[in-house]
Design goal:
Elements: H1 2-8, H2 13-38, E1 57-60, E2 63-66, H3 72-83, E3 94-95, E4 102-103, E5 108-111, H4 113-122, E6 128-129, E7 133-136, E8 159-166, H5 170-182, E9 188-191, H6 193-198, H7 200-211, E10 215-218, H8 231-247, E11 252-256, H9 265-273, E12 277-278, E13 283-284, H10 293-303, E14 309-312, H11 318-331, E15 335-337, H12 339-343
Parallel strand pairs: 1-6, 8-9, 8-14, 8-15, 9-10, 10-11, 11-12, 13-14
Antiparallel strand pairs: 1-2, 3-4, 5-7
Helix pairs in contact: 3-4, 5-11, 8-9, 10-11
Length: 362
């Protein structure tokens, strides 16, 4: 055996070299393991070492932030400085003391810095990356006030809605819709049951309007006040109208507009039990009085504000008045949307810099 070891060199310099390498490897492993215990993550690839490709930028609130060639942590630092001034706090729903109606909630928003930087790191050279926003949910919503009526949307939202209550005026419907569509807006159309039932063409017209982006609400069956003091009776009328809308092939929005704007507690209970939110208005054009196109238009232009629900009817003067006040709404930065959009808690992208939350009055 000794002779074999001698021939292989195991007892000579090769053995000593081998042992030395083993000792060095063992020491290195020990040092690495020891540092790993003292400093977690030592020896592993560090995500913060990633760099954003050259020429990559992100546009936030109109400001171009060049992140090209920044390390991940450096990019996070740059965006964190901006993020503090971009956070929008959520608005809780609350009861308005003047109207006794509920003001809808509005979600908040914060810049998701980590996700935005991750998108920048993954981008191609020269690419502009969209910021990533994270929603901040309100603690109190419309669901906490199921029977409270609604008169307006949240004033922090730069939108308005137009309710078109329909019981007559067939010949004026298309011009009104065309004007609103041309302005980039959509209506919430609330017909009464007697009108919808009177002519099969009415249901077809409503379905076509909804297909173009308008929405249909419930206006009851008869064009008369529903102050019955009887929730069961009011509920029957609401459900009868809902059946007509469904038979017209229209998906109904969950809004009930009481005829004449008249209601009592029983009406509110019946609407809520049927899954509807009772909706009134904050700005009445009173177009049915036919006081003149300029009078109607000026009434809107002088009083309109963010969050308003504007009440209209299909009259000979309504479309010409709209031709005057719709451009004024655009000039004020107010977009005409459906009730569903106005009352949604979702904060529009263009409102990401909205101010502090609206609090209930003292």
């Amino acid at each position: 055996m000794a002779s074999l070891s001698k021939r292989l060199g195991w007892g000579g310099p090769y053995l000593r070299l081998g042992l030395t390498l083993v000792v060095i490897a063992a020491l290195g492993l020990g040092i690495t393991l020891g540092l790993g215990v003292l400093f977690p993550g030592f020896g592993r690839w560090a995500p913060g070492a990633e760099r954003v490709p050259a020429g990559v930028s992100v546009v936030i609130a109109g400001q171009v932030v060049d992140l090209g060639r920044c390390g991940r942590f450096e990019a996070v630092g740059l965006l964190e400085d901006l993020a503090q001034g971009l956070t929008v706090l959520p608005h809780d729903a609350y009861l308005d003391r003047a109207t006794k109606g509920v003001v809808p909630a509005l979600e908040g928003r914060r810049l998701d810095v980590a996700a935005t930087v991750a998108a920048a790191v993954a981008a191609k050279s020269g690419e502009t990356v969209a910021p990533v926003w994270a929603g901040l949910a309100p603690a109190v919503t419309l669901a906490d006030f199921p029977e409270a009526p609604l008169y307006a949307g949240n004033p922090a939202k730069s939108q308005v809605a137009i309710i078109l209550n329909v019981a007559w005026g067939d010949e004026f419907l298309d011009p009104i819709c065309s004007l609103v569509e041309g302005a980039g807006g959509r209506l919430t159309i609330c017909p009464v049951g007697t009108w919808l039932e009177a002519d099969p063409g009415h249901g077809a017209w409503l379905a076509a309007a909804v297909a173009r982006g308008h929405e249909a609400g419930n206006h009851g069956f008869y064009n008369q006040p529903m102050t019955y003091g009887d929730a069961a009776k009011a509920g029957e009328e609401i459900q009868r109208m809902a059946g007509l809308i469904s038979r017209a092939g229209v998906k109904e929005a969950p809004f009930f507009a009481p005829p004449m704007g008249a209601f009592d507690q029983a009406t509110l209970q019946a609407a809520a039990a049927a899954g509807y939110r009772t909706v009134l208005w904050s700005l009445d054009t009173i177009d049915w009085r036919l006081e003149g196109v300029d009078v109607i238009a000026d009434r809107v232009i002088a009083r309109v504000k963010a969050g308003d629900i504007i009440l209209c009817h299909p009259t000979a003067q309504t479309a010409p008045a709209m031709a005057k006040f719709l451009p004024a709404l655009q000039a004020k930065g107010l977009k005409v949307v459906t009730l569903s959009e106005l009352l949604s808690p979702t904060l529009p992208t263009e409102d990401s810099g909205a101010g502090a939350p609206t609090a209930p009055p003292d």
